[in-house]
Structures are given as C-alpha cells and as structure tokens.
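[Automated response] Your request has been received and processed.

Submitted sequence:
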Amino acid sequence: MEYNKVISGLTEFVLIFDMDGVLVDSNPMHREAWVAYNRTFGLETTDAMHQRMYGKRNDRIIRDFFGDSLSPEEVAARGAAKEELYREMIGDRIEEMLVPGLRDFLDRYPEVPKAVASNAEPANVNFLLDHANLRRYFQVVVDGHQVANPKPHPEIYLRAAGLLGASPAQCIVLEDSYSGVEAARAAGMRVIGVRTTYDNLPGTELTVDNFESGVLTEWLTAQRRAV
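Generated structure:
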C-alpha cells in the first residue's frame, strides 16, 4: 500500500496507538505479573516501582528493579520471563481487557491509516493483535525492539509516521502514560490522552475515559473541518 497516496486522497490525519493502556487496559495485570515475578527473586514490588514502570521498555524496568549490574543477556532473559508470565495470566481474558469502544472506533474510521507504536515486547504485541483479531486494522506495527531509543524518546513515533508516509503534523497519537505523551510531543504530533492509567495527562489536546467518548468523535470531526 502506498500510504502517502492514502493520506492525501482520503484523510487529513493518521492515528497512531500506544498498546498497553490504550488498546488494552493491561496495566492491572502487568502489576500482578511484576509482583509475582519479582517475588521469585525475593523482591517485593512497591507502588512507587509500579508507577515508574508505566510506559517504559522492559530493559529499563528490569534495570530499575534489579540494578545495573545485570548483563544485557540477563536483562533480556528476565524481561522475557516476566512477559511470558503475563501472557499466561491474561490467557483468554483479552477481550474483556480491551478498552471500551475500541472495536467500534476502529471500524468507524476504515479510511484512516493506523499504526501501533508500543514500547512493549514483540511477543506481547503479537499476542494481543493476533488473539484479539486487531491486526487487520493496522497498516504499521512498531514495537520496542525496533528502535534504539524507547519512549520518552520520539524515535518510535517518528518511525511509525515514516512507515505510514505521514508527516508528524498529520499524526494524532493516543497515549496513556507521561513518557508516551512526552515522546509524541517531542515528535511534533498531537496527542489524545486515554485515562486508563492517569487522570491528568499534561500536553494532550484532550483526554477521554475510553473510545466511547462523544468528545473524541467530535474532536476528530473538527480536525477534518479545519483542513
């Protein structure tokens, strides 16, 4: 597909979605998985540790939790083991974990190019997109292992935009974390906050509880009228 032709011919913007906290309200299960995994090392997971992990790539979380003395191989192994536990825990619960209104929202904008840009492990991204039958909605998928610099660096969003053939000004990002908002803003993109993780997300154009929000639909309609 030639994305810049799609953009110039049919739509004035593209949509780029974070995954955890935007497509799927997964942070409660991630917290449970971290608690269980860290206890295998005798480490009790505090609320402050949970707060620090939101929106971060696993290598940074592992070093935060366990220190900088681990080898890169051990960091990768521990991150993969925790995510394997997480996937086992969510099992067949994915559908109930999807952020309310997501499928209807994606169906409402079939002509709008869409991407996923997530710091998450590739196995988690693939697990969600395949088990929830969401892959068909997204022309581009960028995970945390496809960039050198994870969020809050803007690289992942700039890569997604480039693969869609879109300029940063055309991109509307949906995010739930401070680091994600910072990354999208640094990329020169507009951001809509989804209040699954935080009630207040500074730097966003607006914030919504979920995809059932009429305010979100009205705002996107206004973007088209403004062009």
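Summary generated for your ticket: Residues 3-25+94-226 form a domain with the Rossmann fold fold (CATH 3.40.50.1000). Confidence is low (pLDDT under 50) at residues 1-10.
If you did not submit this request, please reply to this message.
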